[in-house]
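User: Some background: our group keeps a shared notebook of sequences we're curious about, and every so often someone picks one and asks for a predicted structure to add to the entry. Today it's my turn. The entry only has the sequence so far, pasted here. Could you supply the structure so I can complete it?
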Amino acid sequence: MGLRDSLLLATLAALLSGAPAGAQELTGTLKKVKDSGAITIGHRDSSVPFSYLDGSQKPVGYATEICLKIADAVKANLKLDKLEVKLVPVTSATRIPLIANGTIDLECGSTTNNADRQKQAGFTNTHFLTATRYVAKKEKKLDKIEDLKGRTVVSTSGTTNIRQINEANTARSMGLTILPAKDHAEAFLMVETGRADAFVMDDVLLASLVAGSKTPDAYTISSEALSKPEPYGIMLRKDDAPFKAVADAATAALYKSPEGKALYEKWFTQPIPPRGINLKLPMSEAMQKAFANPSDSPDPAAY
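Assistant: Of course. Here's the predicted structure to add to the notebook entry:
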């Protein structure tokens, strides 16, 4: 290895360590935050328990708290006395454009980290693993994917899930009528009111919608999944290595610490605001491994 290679590796190591800014000229999001004294977090309205509005319309949730930890790390990295945290609502359809055009710096919700999205955005370490299933009323006696043949189903616009059910519809000649909804709440309402037979979405989000419904016992989630386990990650701008290094270091430290497990239990195994529902989802073995070995890989096989 030559001197030039050694210097390049040393520079890269410093960059990836999330070392305090100042050792090199600020660029990208770190410069934006330093200059403005503010960081902007995109939140969701109904992605329970990841990012949603509580009884006083305040954004709360598991992913929201992780983003606030990242904001703390950015403040420390930039050695700022104060850092304003701005919260901006986003939807499944607007989250990537708003990250790309600089309106928000972090997107905190239930966004699947996959290879296609990594062409448009960056992701921090995985904070949850899910799979695509569907929810339906028990009276319809639906359980497997094939049971949906000829039915009307709904999924949220701009999600991985609506792409997957469209692909399954074509590949399996299922004859589905697939309706897009603007958000998860509208999609579940369509099942609740009979406008759709099933709502295709990440299983954990379906569990939260059922737990928060007027009649939780009236619904069932399919036993068969439409996908392999999929990683959720906090989204940030693509090709912004210095900012991503800070976010990666902050999330890795959180997940490996007892605080990470406590944060998970707070939102998945205990009553949560505003109605005190309990998702009763203890940390899976796969999630324990993901926390022990933080990764931003979009490949389900990595988990």
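Suggested note for the entry: The first strand starts at residue 38 and ends at 43. The CA atoms of residues 132 and 201 lie 5 Å apart.
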